[in-house]
Amino acid sequence: MALFIALVICLSCLIFLFLWNRSYAQGKLPPGPTPLPIIGNILQIDTKNINESLLKLAKVYGPVFTVYLGPQRTVVLHGHKAVKEALVERGEEFSGRGSFPLAEHISQGSGVVFSNGELWKQTRRFSLTVLRDMGMGKKTVEDRIQEEALCLVEEFRKTNGSPCDPSFLLGCAPCNVICSIIFQSRFEYNDKKLLTLLDYFNENFRIISTPWIQLYNAFPFLIHYLPGSHNELFKNVAEQKKFVLEQIKEHQESLDLNNPRDFIDYFLIKMEKEKDNKQSVYTMDNLVVTIWDMFSAGTETTASTLKYGLLLLLKHPEVTAKVQEEIDRVVGRDRSPCMRDRSRMPYTDATIHEIQRYIDLVPNNLPHMVNQDIKFRDYFIPKGTTIFVSLTSVLRDEKEFPNPDKFDPSHFLDANGNFKRSDYFMPFSAGKRVCVGEGLARMELFLLLTHILQHFTLKPLVDPKDIDTSPLVSGFGTVPPSYKLCFIPV
């Protein structure tokens, strides 16, 4: 047995070295540290602080370099110029979804986030069309968010100014907005189904951001069969998919082909129209994963941004005061904030942008992949190579954002106090793979935060200077720390 294992290891090393040498023979790969057989450069990367490791490598090898995460070849893009050149100027070539073994096990090539090829193109196009038809960026979706914002305000009012952890309630609002789009319904905040869904989302985001999952993605052929938190995540996702299937079944029983009510209806009608097309991407599996993608991307990311945003506003009461002054001046107390107000509220808009820039929610983006052999900056990148995009290196660029490690809304204001756009603002990524729900997320962040600050003074439990805004975990995602505050009615 020991001899067999030794032979397998030796053979794996030989294959790895053969593939590595062949890639160099085809062309010059971007430079990078020499990988070890099987484990690659994993010993040179701190899985607890990948950003710092990539920054150090970028200083040595430049803005485009190669690392091996286990046996997987990965090209890293570091800095605004390299990221923009790849994702925007050469977006089609870099539009593939790179290797993410954990997600691949869950999605099985379906959905809108982790799919590739024609299935991805058609599903993405369909999703954008339906969201637009349902009012994405229009009055109808704005109405839904405003109604949910008022529900959120009432829930915070019930705390009677006593200390509370806002995490759960901040998750309810975006989750209900997504529910209204997908199911045409919402949950009461004490509904057990909603409570369970949010628990799954919170736990999944925490798990996927841990070093263990970084190891899983580097060595899925080994880690998958070991005990660990990935198994807990798979169980959570299975329960979430079960919930989605129940909703789909209810829709099938009441479907009116001439009167779609929500996203599920639109998809079921498309399935019916293409039922004789054996190559159709409109299948039940794809519908389930697409809905799971929308829930996961649309709930936890917005909830985490809101949670981190309130913590930063507690830490910086001078910023909060300016935002509330602008809300009082532009909106007042007799009506709800609306999207038309945003153009007249530059400081509030800048503050929300700064929250997203500062928290750096998904530091290295979801992995991309090149769809063909390409030449990039005199380097050769073979078809199928995974591309890591360091969004941190863009959002924390010192030239664009002076003192990038400081929370400062003036990063998005000009000398006259007007809102200043920046090409370096890429929390939703950029190019062909930019977040499908970017418009919805922007609207939610503005309306939910302004409603909260219109009705409450945020009171910390400690001196603001003693508030620690360091993330609980920073891996795939940046998980905000737990905290409590008091919502004092204005």
UniProtKB/TrEMBL annotation:
Residues 1-25 form the signal peptide. GO terms for cellular component: endoplasmic reticulum membrane. Keywords: Endoplasmic reticulum, Heme, Iron, Membrane, Metal-binding, Microsome, Monooxygenase, Oxidoreductase, Signal. It is found in: Endoplasmic reticulum membrane; Microsome membrane. InterPro entries: Cyt_P450, Cyt_P450_CS, Cyt_P450_E_grp-I, Cyt_P450_sf, Cytochrome_P450_fam2. It is a peripheral membrane protein. This is Cytochrome P450 family 2 subfamily C member 8. It comes from Molossus molossus (Pallas' mastiff bat).
